Amino acid sequence: MPISWPRLAHLRHVLGRPSLRGSASWTRLLSFSPLARLCARQGSGAGSLAPGGTIFALSSGQGRCAIAVIRTSGPASGLALRSLTAAQEPPPARSACLRLLRHPRSGEPLDRALVLWFPGPQSFTGEDCVELHVHGGSAVVSGVLQALGSVPGLRPAEAGEFTRRAFAHGKLSLAEVEGLADLIHAETEAQRRQALRQLDGELGQLCQGWVKTLNKALAHVEAYIDFGEDDNLEEADRDVRALEAALRSHLWDARRGQRLRSGVHVVVTGPPNAGKSSLVNLLSRKPVSIVSPEPGTTRDVLETPVDLAGFPALLSDTAGLREGVGAAEQEGVRRARQRLEQADIILGVLDASDLASPSSCSFLNTVVAPLVTRSPDSSRQRLLLLLNKSDLLSTNASPMDTTLPPHVLLSCRTGAGLDSLLQALKTELAMVCGDPFTGAPVLTRARHQHHLQGCLDALGHFQLDTDLALAAEALRQARRHLSHLTGGGGTEEILDLIFQDFCVGK
Ligand code: GDP
Question: Is the whole-model pTM more than 0.70?
């Protein structure tokens, strides 16, 4: 947002009040306001810089490691580098050079490190940046951080501040910032791919294409309003309707990206003793649930986050479904049914050696059959039927009942059939999350969905047979929503929400 001169004067007034110096709000105000950039440009570094000026932080993980990366960003970065290396000139831009680092005050040697100099604007943040690749021992890291802190004009960075500066300097769009946050937190292969696509700006590019369509349509409508030229009005109408269809299809898809980001709900269900807890332990590779031949052992819903075939999932073990039990188990069955409602994927487990039992038949009739007979379009949930304990089937037993729905034969005891199960699960998960390798960029956050819906709602008011001024306003409104999505009109609150996910040093 461009800053007005009265606002600038007000900021100067605020900065002049000693009582506010050093307060958190003052620091924040300075860090990201255009005034800070103004001060930063005017100040040559030392002393003259406000606390918003030059930041430093450990950017690699905490704890002992071979190499730790410490970086700075801001106009005093060059000064910091010169102070620590006792050199007049920084090394050549973007080339790694070996240098002895010393404490600027005591001259005490700190480490022999690789240093990199990134003069702005060709840097991650768009400002002058320095990267110090030091040995990862905690004494070295804290020594170098202390040394940087002693350089005038430098201060420790706040969480996400490097990325926030990159955003403020137009190096990253808001969607790319979100992609970066997701990439840092990605725990599975599919999450990593999705985040990387977003960081590459695919969602932003898609929005830019839509904005172009809106701009073109707006130009045609305005040409008609101003000059009475209606040659292109029909084309504008066609383009807007096509855009509506595209937005609808993305919104239809929206839950997929969010599921991939936050994890797919996979619920294990079945009659007692079928091997549900054994399956949860097998898939999570840890003893999450108690396995026992005694029916009704699992009462509460037990959840565990797992990486299933590269997709993030929240796996829930639930009480065996049966009637006529005591009050505590009945409550367990109620919770199990409730959790079943929330599932994206249901893993229905039956004992393959006990398919004719009343509990197996009841499960097939009441849980499996309704899900199988639902048309795929209307089905939000997907079902995988598993016949466990295949090791108990004798090799010359009669073939499986052909009326059973498609299923995977498995033995949690021997592990037989596990590969087929993972393959089938991967297919189901890809259906639920979308394939992060291909296809259109997905909307990964509720915020994206909100603005896309807002854009679509605005286009609903684009009617050429009524007041054209209103139609033009509808297009402008739609464009505003897209601009909010990529951060063009980003408010401080949204920025705060997004950046709170970041760690210090990023
Ligand atoms: P749940 O009540 O459905 O959670 O079933 P559990 O996982 O607690 O298992 C019930 C019993 O079946 C336990 O004694 C398990 O050791 C046994 N079991 C589980 N999976 C298998 C399997 O694949 N083969 C055999 N033979 N027994 C199994």
Answer: no
Q: Are 455 and 406 in contact (CB under 8 A)?
A: no
Residue 66, number of CB atoms within 10 A of its CB:
8
CA distance 2 to 4: 7
Q: Where are the domains of the chain?
A: 5-42, 54-168, 174-253+435-486, 268-433
Indicate the CATH number of 54-168 among 2.60.40.1640, 3.30.1360.120, 1.10.150.130, 3.40.50.1820: 3.30.1360.120
Q: Whose CA is nearest to atom 14 of ligand 1?
A: 293
Q: Which residues fall within 8 angstroms of residue 452, CB to CB, at 6 or more apart? A: 247, 250, 251, 254, 443, 481, 485
Q: Which of 357, 421, 363, 417 is nearest to 390 (CA)?
A: 417
pLDDT digit string (tens) for 417-428? 999 999 999 888
Instruction: For residues 300 and 305, give the distance between their C-alpha atoms in angstroms, rounded to a whole number.
Output: 16
- Dihedral, 435, 439, 440, 446 alpha carbons, nearest 10: -20
Ligand 1 binding pocket (C-beta < 6 A) is 270, 272-278, 291-293, 297-298, 320, 388-389, 391-392, 411-413
Atom of ligand 1 nearest to the CA of 291: 8
- Domain formed by 268-433, architecture: 3-Layer(aba) Sandwich (3.40)
Question: How remote is the CA of residue 309 from the centroid of ligand 1, in Å?
Answer: 23
What whole-number distance in Å separates Cα of residue 355 and Cα of residue 409?
13
Domains 174-253+435-486 and 268-433 are alike in CATH topology: no
426's tokens: 């991967």
At 109-168, the pLDDT tens digits run 999 999 999 998 999 999 999 999 999 888 899 899 999 989 998 988 887 889 888 888
Whether the Cβ atoms of residue 436 and residue 261 lie closer than 8 Å to each other: no
Ligand 1, atom 8, lies closest to the CA of 291
Pocket test for ligand 1, best of 283, 289, 291 (most atoms within 8 A of CB): 291
